[in-house]
Amino acid sequence: MFELPHRSRVAVGRLFAARVVRPLALSRPALAVGGATMGGSGKTPLAIACAAELASAGLRVAFIGHAYRAAPGRPRFVRPDDDLDEVGDEALLAARALHGRVEVAVAPGRRGRALAVAFAAPAADVVVLDGVAQTRPARASLALLAVDAEDPWGTSTPVHWLRRARQGGWGQAPIATLVSACDAIVPVLDEGRTLARFAGLGRPVWPATVSSRGAWVGQALLTWEALRFRRVGLITAIARPERVIRSLGRRGVVPRVVVSARDHGPLGPALARRASTSTTARDVDIWVATAKCALHAARVLPPHAPLACLDYTVTLDPELRTRLRTLGTAALGSLAP
């Protein structure tokens, strides 16, 4: 069996650790929300739900997003009507979900998060870091690791990349690195599913439950029962579209056509043509997409192709809600004169 030399294993381990623990100067208490895989862990919806919980406690919250495949130009707050190419899909999604309650900030370049923190933190009581597992030199006040409850370490995680080298037993080290960086593991699972695979990792487990009533076409809700009688197409621009397909299947909806772009898009001309030509009486009479994917789909679908945005609500574990309230109290105390 092939095994990388010790020096290479050490180098890869250091590289992975550097990606898990980010250098950030924090002037405010911080909640870090990282993901166990390179996309598809549910981290951004979890971070949005946590930010909303903190805001409901009366805190001024700065949500620090990331402008993947976008060009903000400068550190700035994100508005719900901003251009997707300027602020990125996940930051725009957060700004729309948290509008009027939480400020969402982004900044350009490799130091984007650090610049966004410096820009937004002075006016906040607490910052929420989307896509950051842990910080240094000071650790985040609370660090959560979001995982897909059914496939926690996935096949798009660096753990998988290391295993592809046919190593002999050292591939679990990155999982240990992820776990050691967090204060708690948050499995994201559909309502009604059973959680059964996180014992022995040495961290508390606070599940976040996802519920959905169907999909929205404008202000009208199509229930799951109604969708089961439609010819449904699915458009994705996420790392793990199989998660959405699996969730739809559990609700009795099997897409006739699936059009998948890379994570964060865009849907290129070829995919756009496929989506357009599939919208016929024979193939698809309604397209569905997650809120993030709908940002990309809306740019390429023709006017005659209706697009429904999947309803998605995250309910936090009571213990996590308690910890967030404790974090909020500590944040207010640290800012008291």
**Helix and strand succession?**
HEEHEEHHEHEEEHHEEEEHEHEHEHEEH
How many H/I helices? 12
Shape: globular
Low-confidence sequence ranges: 8-12, 156-173
**Radius of gyration, rounded?**
20 Å
Number of strands: 17
Tally of distinct domains: 2
Give the biggest sheet: 9 strands, mixed
Beta-strand proportion: 15-25%
Tell me roughly what share of residues is in helical segments. 25-40%
Average pLDDT score: 87
What order do the strands of the largest sheet run in, or round the barrel if closed?
Answer: 4-5-3-6-2-8-9-10-17
Q: How would you describe this structure to a colleague?
A:
The protein is of the alpha/beta class and 337 residues long. It folds into 2 domains: 6-60 and 125-209 and 314-335, no CATH class; 213-311. It contains 12 helices and 17 strands. The protein has helices spanning 6-20, 43-56, 84-87, 89-97, 112-120, 158-163, 173-181, 224-227, 241-250, 269-278, 291-297, 318-335, and strands at 21-23, 30-35, 61-64, 76-77, 103-106, 126-130, 134-136, 142-148, 184-190, 208-211, 214-217, 220-223, 232-236, 257-260, 286-289, 307-310, 313-315. The protein has a 9-stranded mixed sheet with strand order 4-5-3-6-2-8-9-10-17, sandwiched between helices. Strands 12-11-16-15-13-14 form a 6-stranded mixed sheet. Strand 15 (286-289), helix 11 (291-297) and strand 16 form a beta-alpha-beta unit. Helix 1 packs parallel to helix 7. It starts with 5 loop residues before the first helix and ends with a helix. Residues 8-12 and 156-173 have low confidence and may be disordered.
